[in-house]
Amino acid sequence: MLSILKKAPWLLVAATLACTTYTGGNFPLQPAQQRRAATSADSVQLVQGPVDRTYVVVGKVHAHGRCNWFFGFTGCGDEQMQKLLREEAARLGATAIIDIRSGSFSRFEWSDVHLHGTAIAY
Predict the structure, then answer these.
(1) Is residue 13 part of a domain?
(2) Number of C-beta neighbours around residue 64 at 10 A
(3) Per the structure, how many domains does the chain have?
């Protein structure tokens, strides 16, 4: 590996510039003794529009992606961001996410993409 970098140092620069990072977070809104057991991220639904069932709000969730816009093909994909949002909701024991909002911010070389939502349980 080191010999490759000595012969082509631009590979390290290109790999660094093309880097895409994802982070997530959650904020439980219930006291610790009332929190629900974690669920499967695959079972968490993303709900657009009104909810026609009774539910309990279990917390707020957030997914963040940062990508270099010079290499947009590695960018912050919707699927990866939604997967991260589901994972954070599953940690709270949620069965769905409502009120999903997105936002983005760009600098010269980086773009930040955010998804925020409310984790609920039916």
Answers:
(1) no
(2) 17
(3) 1
Terminal-to-terminal C-alpha distance of the chain? 51
In this structure, which long-range contacts are made by residues 1-10, counting pairs with CB atoms below 8 Å and at least 24 apart in sequence?
none
Question: CA-CA distance, 116 to 100, in Å (whole number)?
Answer: 6
What is the b/e burial string over 38-54, where b = at least 16 CB atoms within 10 angstroms of the residue's CB?
Answer: ebebeebeebeeeeeee
Residue 39: inside a domain: yes
* Residue 57, beta-bridge partner list: 120
pLDDT tens profile 61-88: 998 887 776 655 555 677 888 999 999 9
Over pLDDT 70: what percentage of the chain? 73
